[in-house]
C-alpha cells in the first residue's frame, strides 16, 4: 500500500504541487482580511457563575470602557499663556471625529440656580475665558472648591485630569487605532510645544497598547524564529538550498494559518499570535528529518526519484502519525469552554 502511495504521489507530483500552489495563493488572499482583537481576551467560559453575573451587571448598569484619561502634574499649566494653549488643545480634541465629549479644566461646568424659572442650569466656569493671570488664579480657586470635581479634574497638589468620551461604535471597530493615534498625536504636539509631560490611562488606551503589542510581537517572534532556524540549518547542512526548502515549506504553512484565521472569522489574539512562530518550531524538525533522510537515500540509490520514493515508504507513515498525534493534542484545546483556547486549538490542529 505504501509503495502504491509513493508511486501515486511521484506520478502526479506536478498536479499536487499545482494544487498546493493555488491553495496557497487563495489562503494568501484570505490573509488580508484577518483582523486583530482589540478587546481583552475572555479567559473564563460563558457558563461561569461570575461571568454570568458580570454580563447581567453590564446589561443593567452599562460600562465606562469608552473613557480615555489624560493627566498632567506641572505648575506651568497654571500660567495664563500655557493655560490658553491648553484650552486650544482641548478644543482640538473636541473637533476630532468620534469624540463624544471632553471634560477638562477650561470647559468645567458648574450647577447654578435660576431663581426666576425655579430650575438649575449648567454654566461654564471659565466663560468668559480669563485674559489675565489674576483672573485665572481666581477661577482656579473656585475650581478647587467645587466638591463634585474634587480629586477628579483638579486636586490640591496641582494635578489636572482631562477626560475624553469616545463613540462606542468606533471603539468596537478597526478605526479605533486611527482615532487613538490622532488623540496621542494632538496630545504629543501640545506636550512638546509647552514642555509638559502627559500621562495616558483608560480602557481605550489599554486596548490600543495591547493591539499594537500583538502586531509588533507577532512580526518580531516570527522573524526571530525563522532567522535562528535558518542559521542552525546552514550550520548543519552548509547549503543554501537545504535552508531554502524547509523555510519555503514553513512560509506556506504560516500563510495557511492566517488564511484559516480569516476563513473561520477568528481574530488575532495574544494567544493565536504565537501560532506562526510555533508552526516554525514544530515544522522545521519534520523538514530536517525528511531532508536528512533524503540525502542519506540519495547516496544509496542511483536517482532522486528512487530516493524520494524510499523516503516516503520508510518515514512517510511515521511522520504522518507523529503529526496527526500533535494535531489531536491541539484539537483537545478546542473542547474547552474558553474561547481563546478553543480558537487556538482549532487553528493549530488544522495546520
Would you give an account of this structure?
Helix 8 (203-237) packs parallel to helix 10 (275-300). The model has no long low-confidence stretch (mean pLDDT 81). This protein folds into 2 domains: 2-47 and 212-350, Up-down Bundle (Multidrug efflux transporter AcrB transmembrane fold), CATH 1.20.1640; 66-201, Ribosomal protein S10 (Alpha-Beta Plaits, 2-Layer Sandwich). It has 12 helices and 6 strands. The chain has helices spanning 2-11, 13-31, 49-61, 80-94, 133-144, 168-171, 176-194, 203-237, 240-263, 275-300, 304-333, 339-350; strands spanning 67-73, 99-103, 109-114, 119-124, 159-166, 199-201. The chain has 351 residues and is of the alpha+beta class. The radius of gyration is 30 Å and the shape is elongated. It comes from marine metagenome.
How is this structure best summarized?
This protein is an alpha+beta fold. Helices cover 62% and strands 10% of the residues. Helix 2 crosses helix 9 (240-263), helix 4 runs antiparallel to helix 7 and helix 9 (240-263) packs across helix 10.
